[in-house]
Specification:
By secondary structure, the chain is mainly β. It has strands at 2-6, 11-13, 39-43, 65-67, 70-72. The strands form two sheets. It has a three-stranded antiparallel β-sheet, with no helix packed on it. Strands 4-5 form a two-stranded antiparallel ribbon. β1 and β2 form a beta hairpin. It is elongated.
């Protein structure tokens, strides 16, 4: 199993015999001053080799909807021009 993600919420992927692109979107957990946070990228009980390439970590912003170029968050809406 290929594993990736934050230490408390990792995701498992089944290995495939050729290169394949995977992506994972997650909300970073709050920092615990007694523990710290880290990311996992590895394997669990895989026979053979697992290779990683072009690993990226990018910030994203959740958008509920987009109306006329205006990004609305969860629970926001435009009604009668307001």
């Amino acid at each position: 199993m290929i594993i990736s993600g934050p230490d408390r919420i990792n995701r498992d992927f089944h290995p495939v015999p050729s290169w394949r692109q995977y992506s994972l979107i997650f909300q970073a957990p709050r920092t615990d001053p007694n523990r710290g946070n880290f990311l996992r990228l590895g394997q669990w009980h895989v026979r053979g080799a697992v290779w990683f390439d072009d690993v990226e970590l990018r910030p994203v912003r959740a958008i509920y909807s987009n109306i006329d170029g205006l990004s609305l968050g969860e629970g926001e809406r435009i009604r009668k021009g307001e």
